[in-house]
Structure formats: C-alpha cells, structure tokens
Design goal:
6 strands; 70 residues; alpha+beta; single chain
Length: 70
C-alpha cells in the first residue's frame, strides 16, 4: 500500500470507508465517477501527494469530501 511513504488515493478512500474496495474505486474511475476539484480522474495509481491541500474530492454523485493534509 505504501510506496516510499506515499499513499495511493484509492487506498486512502478504501481505508476511510468511502469506497467498498479498490475494485469499486477502479470502476468509479473507469466510469468517470471520481473527480478532484471538478476534474475527472483517469489514473488508477494517483498518489495522495499529487493532490493539492484543501482539494475537493467527489466520489460518485453523493459523496463529496475535502482533503486536508496534516
């Protein structure tokens, strides 16, 4: 899961119960259901450090979260 101290976005979403599995996350990406700041994500392997602090992550139509890094 962790590569040199970096986390994949799908792993973070799964561990926080925002998606049921990484397979569900992949399906969401394939169906254009995952957006960061309104921009559709196409990369399965996007790392959490590639995302700006205070970004809005939309998961499907109903789940919207704000990413705040500590």
């Amino acid at each position: 899961n962790v590569i040199d101290g970096e986390w994949k976005l799908l792993t973070i979403l799964k561990e926080n119960n925002l998606i049921n599995s990484t397979s569900d996350g992949r399906r969401l990406i394939e169906q254009n259901g995952l957006r960061i700041n309104g921009e559709t994500i196409k990369d399965f392997n996007i790392m959490i450090n590639q995302i700006d602090n205070n970004s809005t992550i939309e998961i499907g139509k109903k789940k919207i979260i704000r990413l705040v890094k500590c």
